[in-house]
Amino acid sequence: MKKLVLLVLILGLPALVLASNMGFKAQINKTAGGSNVWWVSFPYFYDPNGDGSVNSTEVCTDTTNLAGIVAWNASTGKMETFTCGGFSTPFTISKGVSYRFAGNGTAEIQWTAVGSHDPSFGHSYTAGGSNVWWVSVPYHWNPTGGVKNAAAMCSEVTNLAGVVDWNAATGKTETFTCGGFTTPFTIDVFSGYRFAGNGSATITWTPSHY
Ligand SMILES: [Ca+2]
């Protein structure tokens, strides 16, 4: 079972009426099983040790039972793995990007994600390379109509061809084609999603939020 709790730290008001610069404390746990990997959403402002930058080592320290963290390189279309406790050079955690968590055997991954949103941040992905990007969704995303699903994502993101969901249980992806006729899947704001570009156009997105 996923245990997802969104608590409001800074303003102390109900989440639905908060201003855009609120802080978050989200308990994101992942029960071992299936593919044992998950794409997760990060707070746009996230720096647990407060030193002004964040890298994959800091994520390992900030989590329990994380075996490794994976970054997607959109240019090459390859993944880069950082093993927690290993000796490879850590990679930088970038704002708005989703990273993949890898579990440690049968242990549940536990992450108390503390951070805040950056309402002025605009995603921008220039066409090229693999032409797909893994992105983080704001925890207080609020699309027009209030239904958080793939169709709403298509409506809000400029030049998006499709959005892809990761099914951790099966280890397979599910694609929703923007403008298509398949049933849109639900967007879980604590999970990362993959954007597919529309030809040579730049994808842009400034997320709506409460
Ligand atoms: Ca830091």
Question: Care to give the gist of this entry?
Answer:
This protein is mainly beta and 210 residues long.
Arithmetic mean pLDDT: 91
* Termini separation: 27 Å
Total DSSP E strands: 14
Whole-number total of structural domains = 2
* Main sheet summary: 4 strands, antiparallel
Portion of residues in beta strands equals 35-45%
Bound small molecules, deduplicated: calcium ion
Instruction: Output the structural class.
Output: mainly beta
Q: Write the element-wise H/E pattern from the N-terminal end onward.
A: EEEHEEEEEEEHEEEE
Which quaternary structure do these chains form?
Answer: single chain
Our count of helices gives 2
The parts where pLDDT drops under 50 for at least 5 residues are 1-20
The portion of residues assigned to helices is: under 10%
Radius of gyration: 16 Å
Widest sheet: strand order? 1-2-8-4
Q: Tell me, what's the shape?
A: globular
